[in-house]
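[agent] plan:
  1. take the single chain provided in the ticket
  2. run structure prediction with default settings
  3. attach structure tokens to the ticket
  4. add a short note for the reviewer (M.T.)
[agent] executing step 1
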Amino acid sequence: MGLATHAGILLNIPTIGCAKSKLVGSFNEPENSENAYTALYDKNELIGYVLRTRKNVKPIFVSPGNNISFESSLNIIKNFKRKTKLPYIMQMAHNTCENYKKNFLQNVGRSN
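[agent] step 2 finished; step 3 output follows
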């Protein structure tokens, strides 16, 4: 189980896992076109999809977290994508983490 599944179970809400890199499993590379996807398997069990959100970008990895189907997870992520590689909500989380990291490192440098 990934973080999305754990959070979904604890909060009792539907969740979707989405990552920039593969955590486990094997897949065939999706074709180089927007919304192309292939299945992601672990030991012959479907665990998610590998989705290319735009042409000429590396794909992202999508899997159901909690109380949601494989197909719904994929469709929701497709609907949240914008002009960036990452879905909008994931881009916001990434930007927030990067800003936090930058501020943290600046403050650590001042305290030494």
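[agent] step 4 note for reviewer: The chain has a mean pLDDT of 89.
[agent] ticket updated
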